[in-house]
Specification:
The complex is a heterodimer of chains A (255) and B (261).
Chain A (H helix, E strand, L loop, with lengths): L1 E10 L2 E11 L4 E5 L6 H8 L7 E6 L2 E2 L9 H4 L2 E4 L11 H12 L4 H14 L15 H13 L5 E5 L7 H18 L2 E6 L2 H7 L2 E6 L2 E6 L1 H6 L3 H8 L4 H12 L1
Helix pairs in contact in A: 3-4, 3-5, 4-5, 5-6
Chain B lengths: L1 H34 L4 H11 L4 H23 L8 H39 L2 H7 L4 H39 L4 H11 L2 H27 L4 H34 L3
The chains are: A alpha/beta (255), B mainly alpha (261).
């Protein structure tokens, strides 16, 4: 279980997270929604210690990770697989070597075992035919799938997805959604995804949490979120906002 | 006036902060070298990129510096009929100062820029975060192999530069300027000692550490986007080069106390 308590983070004086309180239970898929630039990715990066909070705590399986040093975080981070927004594949390596990287770093497996594990992971994301290609030769969707294979090859307890479907066409996005569900069913992982793609959120989420103005504004199942009367959530999920509201938002930002 | 002072204070604090962070990075690299299993494959690859592929630029720099130095010193010494002094002057200057400094400057430009650009790009494309998320410290995987490779390659490149500088200076002095070969070589051997070569190579070791730590630090701390990577690359080259030039003076002064001429 991951517990987030009163998490606060600022960048250059701008407060991005203003006291986030939330819990992620084992084996569930939580989707965090919110406007672009609202701190969703920042929140995600705090969960595995990639960012240090200004205040508050992140507790992973009972361990408060805030006071841990970079090296002390290693065993915690090995519980996580992360699919980054741009997949963050290593440019200098082939798809195979990218997916094999965490296994090789573990220094426990021989090349034959690594080969089997990588091919299994690549077959799940349907990318076996591209295993010898470099990331630059892949399309956006293929890169995300390769990133997903790398995130899951160690069979982590938690998988974090940063905008898994952004920039993909609806068919590819649905493909990624199905893969996330397949990962959950195959490996019983706890998935935490941040997105502003509501189709994806409804499809993969057991619970949906909305991050608004640096705090968790609403939490519920997909059907509860769809049925909510909360104006802020409704505005976000239906994608409607008046021009006046946008102008007001812009003016507030300027001031 | 007060605003100027505040800005100056901010600048000084910022520079000291960077210096402290670089020192911490250096200590982290040393700690990793002595506490973790080396990554030989990555280190050999970096040694090839940093050392082997820098040879052309280093050889050309060393050779032409030796040649021009021979011509200039010949033109001056010839006036006082001390032509054969060209040999020792070229060899001592090459071994003690020119080869280590010029090689370090060329490597800072070529390799320092490459390290900062590569690591900076990895930072802005979240590849460093990806490494960390998999439990691999970027210092272990990226900084240490580059540090060891530079530590190994720069003294060898410096030795190569010394050789080509002295040899090309000899060719110019004997073949072009007509200095007697036997006297030239005799005087060169007489006034060039092993300590000259060793002091040059020790300087190269220090310069390698400066270039590696500064370039790695600048890459790891690159700002956002292409502009951030560009700025990190420029700063890596400028700061490394200036550090080499300034440190060279202090190392020379310290050596002059330890190893009398």
């Amino acid at each position: 279980m991951i517990q987030i308590q009163d998490l606060r983070k600022s960048f250059n004086g701008a407060e991005v997270l203003r006291g986030v309180d939330f819990e992620v239970h084992d084996s569930e898929t939580v989707v965090i929604i919110g406007r672009s630039g609202g701190g969703k990715s920042v929140l995600l990066k705090h969960l595995c210690g990639l960012l240090q909070p200004d205040a508050g705590r992140v507790i992973v399986d009972g361990v408060d990770i805030e006071p841990l040093s970079e090296r002390e975080l290693t065993p915690i981070r090995k519980k996580f697989g992360v699919l980054f927004q741009g997949a963050a594949l290593f440019d200098s390596m082939t798809v195979f070597d990218n997916v094999a990287f965490p296994l090789r770093e573990e220094r426990k497996f021989d090349e034959e075992e690594i080969g089997h594990a990588v091919e299994h992971a690549l077959s799940i994301v349907d990318l076996l035919q591209a295993k010898d290609k470099k990331p630059a030769e892949l399309s956006g969707g293929m890169r995300k799938r390769a990133g997903l294979a790398r995130a899951c090859v160690m069979q982590p307890k938690y998988v974090l997805y940063d905008e898994p479907t952004t920039g993909l066409d609806p068919v590819l996005a649905d493909n990624i959604n199905n893969l996330i569900l397949r990962m959950r069913d195959h490996f019983h992982v706890t998935n935490i995804a941040v997105t502003h793609d509501m189709t994806s959120a409804y499809k993969i989420g057991d619970r949906i949490a909305m991050l608004h103005e640096g705090r968790i504004h609403a939490v519920g199942t997909p059907s509860e979120i769809q049925a909510t009367t909360d104006p802020i959530v409704r505005q976000f999920i239906t994608g409607t906002g008046t021009i006046q509201q946008e102008v007001q938002r812009g003016a507030e930002t300027v001031h | 006036m007060e605003e100027v002072l505040l800005r100056f204070r901010g600048f000084v604090v910022g520079q000291l902060n960077q210096l402290g962070s670089m020192l911490l990075l250096f200590l982290d690299i040393l700690k990793t070298i002595f506490s973790k299993r080396p990554r030989w494959q990555e280190t050999i690859l970096q040694t090839y990129k940093i050392g082997w592929q820098s040879q052309a630029v280093v050889v050309v720099t060393g050779a032409f510096t030796g040649m021009v130095f021979a011509v200039q010193t010949y033109l001056q010494f010839h006036k006082v009929k001390m032509d054969t002094a060209v040999g020792p002057v070229v060899s001592v200057a090459m071994t003690r100062e020119l080869a280590p400094v010029l090689t370090a400057l060329m490597v800072a430009g070529r390799v320092g820029a490459a390290i900062a650009a590569e690591l900076g790009t990895m930072k802005v494309t979240e590849q460093l975060d990806a490494l960390r998320s998999m439990g691999t410290a970027p210092v272990d995987y990226l900084a240490v192999p580059r540090f060891i490779a530079l530590l190994f390659a720069l003294p060898l490149l410096t030795a190569e530069s010394m050789f080509f500088g002295i040899f090309s200076g000899y060719l110019v002095a004997v073949q072009m300027c007509g200095i007697d070969e036997a006297y030239y070589l005799n005087h060169m051997y007489q006034f060039t000692a092993a300590k000259d070569v060793v002091s040059g190579l020790i300087k190269a070791v220090f310069f390698a550490m400066f270039i590696a730590v500064i370039s790695t630090y600048k890459g790891f701390n690159a700002g956002e986007g292409a502009e951030g990577v560009g700025r990190a690359t420029t700063q890596a080259v400028v700061v490394s080069s200036l550090t080499v030039l300034i440190a060279n003076f202090f190392i020379t002064v310290i050596f002059s106390k330890i190893i009398p001429v």
